[in-house]
Amino acid sequence: MIVGENGHGKTSFIEAMLYCEVFRSCRGAADRELVRFGADGFFLKTVASGSVTAGFDARTKAKKVTVDGAEPERLAEAIGIVRGVVLSPGDVALVAGGPRERRQYLDVLLALTARGYLEALSTYRRALRHRNHATMADAPVWEAMLAETGARIVRARRDFVARWAPTFRTHCGAMGERGEPALGYASRTDGSEAALREALERSRERDLQRGRTSVGPHRDDLRLLLDAHELRDYGSAGQQRTAALALRLIEAEAQQAATGTPVTVCLDDAFAELDEGRSAKLGQMIEGMAGAGSQVIAAVPKERDVPEVIGSLPRWRVIEGRVGQ
Predict the structure, then answer these.
(1) Where are the domains of the chain?
(2) How many beta carbons lie within 10 A of that of residue 184, not counting itself?
(3) Share of the chain above pLDDT 90, in %
(4) Which of 21, 237, 8 has its CA nearest to residue 112?
(5) CA 298, CA 296: separation in Å to the nearest integer?
(6) Could you tell me which residues come within 8 angstroms of residue 301 by beta carbon, excluding any fewer than 6 positions away?
């Protein structure tokens, strides 16, 4: 348990711990925003199943990553050596926010757990940029690439929904949700390569005039439902918060299922906006994950903010950016 008043560095501590998972902030901040005021950059070293370092120079905006002392040829080779998940009040944006939040959730998780997903996503994004600035003559070349990699992306996302929808329902119920939660996937096509190619061809002239591509997995959405209604539009604050927590717990479980190794679970003031009942039930679920081998780190402003069921965690304190006992 990391205890400290607001503004003393609890979130920065968790952010630093898990930066080396995908080499970016877990809260979406740009690298330059992570640099201490007055400093020239930052350097992190994490020891997991190997030694991973990340350095960022704020003056040149250069970032360097090493694994066991050697710089990998591609950054993708270093992604996922460090593994963890952060639960925080801000996660409600996964439910209440726009489709981009949910697509990013899927893309990061599948990049860590689905073989070939990161490569397909990188190729798709590169083709998308080219198609958005292509001529009518060049567009078909990029559309073929978009259709092929896009179909792989959609297939992986649909497989994720099918695999984890029952778990989503179970977790929401365990935290006190009485309705019928469900996961779904929303797309303008069936996601097949042929359907994507046809849709891109149909929208080509309009898309090129506007400089953007209107169909494909970059426009799809992960649907979160309660009693067949969109949680984003009709869910209460408590229901949206429960669904967001369920997604984060799935994130931890999916990584463990992919690697066979429990991940670090970080609670960044995660109980702050929960009622007493949901807080206690989440605490029980986290205790179960700890019992299964996950390391649990709870960052809170006050010790009493942590449910009694996980209140026996060793105490550390953070004061003005320094952590100590």
Answers:
(1) 94-240
(2) 14
(3) 77
(4) 21
(5) 6
(6) 3, 4, 5, 6, 10, 269
pLDDT tens digits for 304-318?
A: 878 887 777 888 999
Q: Per CATH, the architecture of 94-240 is what?
A: Up-down Bundle (1.20)
Residue 64 pLDDT greater than 90, yes or no: yes
- Specify the pTM: 0.92
E strand spans, 15-109? 41-47, 51-57, 62-67, 84-87
Cα separation of 128 and 115, whole Å? 21
> 145, 127 in Cβ contact below 8 A?
yes
SS3 content of the chain, % helix, strand, coil (to 5): 50, 20, 30
Categorise residue 52: left if φ over 0, alpha if ψ from -120 to 50, beta otherwise.
beta
Confidence of residue 47 (pLDDT cuts 50, 70, 90): confident
Tell me the pLDDT tens digit for each residue of 1-16.
999 998 899 999 999 9
Residue 317: is it exposed, middle or buried by C-beta count within 10 angstroms (0-12/13-18/19+)? middle
What DSSP string runs through 86-115?
Answer: EE-GGGGHHHHS-HHHHHHHHHHHHHHHST
Give the integer Cα–Cα distance in Å for 177 and 51: 41
Edge-to-edge strand list for the sheet holding 62-67: 41-47, 51-57, 62-67
